[in-house]
Amino acid sequence: MKVAIVNCFDTFMDREASLRRFFLDRGDEVTAIISDFLHVEKKTRTECPAGYTMLHAKPYQKNLSVARMASHVAFAKTAAAFLEQQTWDLIWVIAPPNALIAQCGTYRKCHPNTKLVIDINDLWPESLPIEKIKWLPPFAVWRNLRDHHLSQADAIVTECGLFQRRLHLSDEEATTIYLCKPENDSVQVMRELPAEGISLCYLGSINHIIDIQTISDIVRSAAKVSHVTLHVVGDGENRELLLTSAKEAGASVVYHGVVYNEEEKRHIFSQCHFGLNVMRSSVCVGLTMKSMDYFAYGLPLINNIAGDTWDLIDRYGFGINWSSDTEVDWNGFDVLEAGKKARDFFECELTYGQFARRVESVLNQL
After folding, report:
1. What is the pTM of this model?
2. pLDDT per residue over 331-363, tens digit each?
């Protein structure tokens, strides 16, 4: 089978890499398309990763900007033009951008022998942190680029159950396939917890969608019963605000910067009682990348995100769901047992093997 995987964002590279591995393992001919613009770092790639096909995307500097929208539209047209140069048995498009769904939907309509899978990994404009404007007419047009072309898909996949519900798709109309972290499939969980105090970890981008006020509230709550240390792994435009706010709330802050080395990350996590999975309430996300790392390393979560993660914590008990009136028994919570449950959940739901079985199930429906 001749397969094209189309992806615009470096933030979805783990998803694309897992799909590419799956199809290559089956013996399929795979073209994995990426853009030459790194969304997180806001810079152009200088080299194409081995095994991928890189297409140009116009640079932009602000996440919420006309320049970003123009970049997405232009990339979608470039990807469609590339796809037109060959014939395909299957196109698996990772979205957003919504313009990419529209272009691939049009391609599918014109090429009825090609199967199309639309893989929703985020919802825009629903995930905008500015509640008041995301329902204005321009954003409705943006949203309709996605919604009006979903019917062209032979199968729809969502990265979490929350997205499926927000799109009003039944279990017959869509399949939820969680992300996976193949490099963590066999990691050995370590625990080197401090003899005294409560140690928290924040992992990931420190940007406009994280809820710094809630992180401060969590620190204040824990600081009432013990000394608090906050380990911060990551970077972003709100780094100094997070570090300052945590210190003012009563935490000693250890800033590690961006960490890619898995062994170094494991060592940091081993010292922590909880991982913070905290975002603004306006953000539409079911299962975050940071939470997957927490699960993989057996780190219990403190979570304020509604949707899949909230429901899973209620069901499996691998953390604490936090709201404004939450009262935590910091001394009585069994972090070792919760950490074991977190790792068990990872092994049952988030490994590459589970991912591959679900992708195979989608293909069997085509």
Report:
1. 0.87
2. 999 999 999 999 999 999 999 999 999 999 999
Cβ–Cβ < 8 Å for 20, 45: no
Nearest Cα to Cα of residue 107 among 83, 143, 71, 89: 83
Q: Which amino acid belongs to residue 185?
A: D
Peptide bond into 182 cis (omega under 30): no
State which amino acid sits at residue 324. S
The dihedral through the CA atoms of 203, 204, 205, 210 has a sign that is negative
Q: Is the dihedral of CA 46, 50, 55, 59 positive or negative?
A: negative
CB 313 within 8 A of CB 319: yes
pLDDT tens-digit series, residues 92-146: 999 999 999 999 999 999 999 999 999 999 998 877 766 666 666 677 788 888 9
What is the number of residues in the chain?
366
Looking at residue 332, the DSSP 8-state letter turns out to be T
24 is written with which tokens?
């290559």
How far from the centroid of its chain's Cα atoms is residue 151's Cα? 24
Look at 59-68, 192-201, 237-246, 307-316 and tell me which has the smallest mean pLDDT: 59-68
Contact 199, 229 (CB under 8 A): yes
